[in-house]
């Protein structure tokens, strides 16, 4: 019998070749390709008075040099604003190569193609550019002050101003028994995938086809962009995503300038061309995230229940807005978490600065929103002298209140309606897991030993499975093997395993007989991409639906062959059998042969199915509503997003002398609906927690007043080692299935990173007894806070 695989801890099938060094990343492809290098602006804000490339043209090995003046047609237009929004009244995007002005250090100015990267880099250094310097705008405060403008035609540096509300927050706060005002800051950070951006392109002159391999999270998006910018038919462009060494959101932008410049050069030169980003380029020319200033006004009653919540924040979107307002919209809506403020108002400005663009980075606005809300919950608890967990519990949406409509619009333009959850149950699990109720004793014992320890918790709700759609294609071959494809891409999430588990269960075949391909427009021309924790919900559902179509067809064909009723058949281990009569059977491979009227006896399985049979002379071999082959496809389009949830707790110790922060315990309770593979979900949580630790305690983008990034290398941009992340993460799962998709799934990819800033701020504040209002926080900053507050820790008898 075929073992049920959905919900089981199945080892990842893709790992063997990675562990053996057999991965195929973009830079591994076409070793004989020409190489490209990019001249990038060394200045944050300047007009380009002149570009002189004469010194490059005679360099041996240089084949082409491009500046903006060499671009024509759509390539000479700005890159697309991918997600417009009515409130994005002053959206701006950059050109593939800078036209007249540069607006951040790292903006592409010239593109050189040579026989190798060394020659290309040497040629880039010989290009002479004359600049007229303009005053840079760096940081949210400078953008708000608007003494200087990033774009002359954008008043006040405001790309967008957006407001949403439910109820009357202002009046509710004014009438509340208690009120608080809180100011918070989250600084910039960025994703650092092991593999930077990379693109390879080859133009086939004979077939007039463009083939592109690129390290992306959206192969179909890149395909459309290349076709548009190079004025090709969509059918002339194939985009394949090889192995991708991490994405985390930075690779969802499409196209990056290089993704259209590389194909341009490949077509012009008639030879394959490759671009591989170096690490400094990734720091200064890819994308950042996180940076916000926040102001919260809240009114509440004696039990800490929210009566009114008003949030005003300012979001740093960098020099351009290619991905629209996704990040601040998510902050403004996901801020609500598992709570139900009776009246809510949110207002934000998305502001231009002369810094690297801001696009989604794992968590995508949610860490900032959770930081605002969870710090507010902590502040209410401190004000009332109540347990932080109890204040949260007093505000939870209850299990019988789902679906819960917040009366707002989410990032996808659809109502913010939570589909399912049980937040009180998650909190009880977390309290037990971390020992919350007994921690006061732990704290007191540590203090008696001269140690500072603190505990923190943070809750979140994560919108996942964002539409509009994804597709799945399932094909049973005559060998009995099953080929599966879906258009979204893979960056290490375990898709080949999880999707295979779904198909193996749906079709009743062994896992090893299922092969999954992702991110290849030749196999799946219609897709959206991998982001927003949507792969399992979207492609998983589409693949399940496609597999069910194939199963129904297989049973119908087998029923005819076995002269049995469809309802009497079952599929186990790749064989269709009559229930209760195991000797009456037919292999799926043979059924696949039978599905094609053109059979030919190529092998023994084909011989078994290729018989000269006189059929109904009035019936065509293939029904009008059918097609040859044992394959099927389907698309899944959700009515709205699913909403996963979770709660984290951490125990930290802060060194009394050095202010170093040590993690003693870390616990997670997570609800992503039905679990396809618990081991993969836990791996996602582990990775997210590690990334969250980095974002809370180490990683930041440090710009000076001139717009120069001061830490654009791993010598200066601190990332946590294995010694800095929790050695053990205690994890418990809750499953509240989503009613919105056929498998009951919710996403899990970003969960580990979302609550980290709020979580560590809460724990450090508990250990130190001083307010933590800006994240990330380093030991030196904590040390300065101690001096500034010159505090004497009071004795506290209340529970944590």
UniProtKB/TrEMBL annotation:
Keyword check for Hydrolase: no
Protein name (database record): Aerobic carbon-monoxide dehydrogenase large subunit
NCBIfam families: CODH_aero_grp5
UniProt keywords, alphabetically: Molybdenum, Oxidoreductase
Molecular function GO terms recorded: carbon-monoxide oxygenase activity; iron ion binding
Presence of the UniProt keyword Oxidoreductase in the record: yes
UniProt xrefs under InterPro entries: Ald_Oxase/Xan_DH_a/b, Ald_Oxase/Xan_DH_a/b_sf, Ald_Oxase/xanthine_DH-like, AldOxase/xan_DH_MoCoBD1, AldOxase/xan_DH_MoCoBD2, AldOxase/xan_DH_Mopterin-bd_sf
EC identifiers of the protein: 1.2.5.3
Residue span(s) of domain Aldehyde oxidase/xanthine dehydrogenase a/b hammerhead: 20-135
Lineage: Bacteria, Bacillati, Actinomycetota, Actinomycetes, Propionibacteriales
Coiled coil: none
